[in-house]
Amino acid sequence: MEAKYIFGIIETDKEEFLGCCGFAADKKVHTIPYQDISAVVSDSSFLDYTTLPKDQVARYLLTHQQVIEKLMDSYTIIPMRLGTYAFNKGEVKEILCKGHKKFKDIFKKIENKTEIDVVATWNDLNSTIKEVGEVQEIRELKEKLMSRPGGVSVEDQIKIGSLLKNVLNKKREKISFEIKEALGRVSIDLRMHDLMDDRMIFNAAFLIDKVRQNEFEKELDALNESYGGRINFRCVCPLPPYSFYTAEVKKLPFNDIAWAKEKLEINDMATKEEIIKAYRSKANIYHPDKNINSSDADGQFNEIFRAYKILCEYCDGNVCLPDKKEFSQDAIIIKVRE
Hints:
This protein is α+β, with helices and mostly antiparallel strands and 338 residues long.
């Protein structure tokens, strides 16, 4: 089924061709405008990314990012989450209409801003572990265990390894704090990312003013010099604000919303506060700890929680279900990770 794949949102009121994307040579990237903003799209078949092999998803992600980053040369762009589709041009415009105020607010926040991703790793993990092994606490434990008549047991080795890991983690946390402190002074915001392996010390994204990029890089150079080659720094920039303002489109079928309303026994005009109150009341009634003799207590409790999550998705601020006409059809929800 042909659809519109959405890369991101830019500020322009023009419908124009922007180039070709890597999904296929004939797939042209173009804009679909609504008022003063546009979605950057290409014609593409629907794909469920959750069912694809990881290497294939990685290739699609690379193309997705390449298109967005190329547009950075000419536009401020709000990136869309990988795998965002609309059925047709009309639905793209509906997404832009529903998200217009939210998108415009974000454009104000990211104007003349860029993301810089910084990763720090141990230059030589084995040497670092050896160095940590000379810490007095660990050295004394080793000497104590070695002096035993029976030698070092497997349990003793586990104890040493656990202590070694704790000391290494404290060292990692100290360096991570120092990096955050130094780079945070020239940044607006940061987002910490997961550490991917034992070699990694620090993994974060920084949001900065573009005019301070040189200043940021000087701070990074100073950090690199201060650690005397023991740590490798990798810096990727400039980037769109992937870690701070990535937009997502969710579609909630009317039947799901109606089911959730009925489950929590709320009306069409419920506010978020009323939804929370209804959820707490129902959760208190159906909590498994209060229904130990009921075989279906867990199922009932989980359904109450699912209904609550569905209705919270539909909320925009404190207003949740204000428009009966809109509520009679499937809902398009615009979420932005902030």
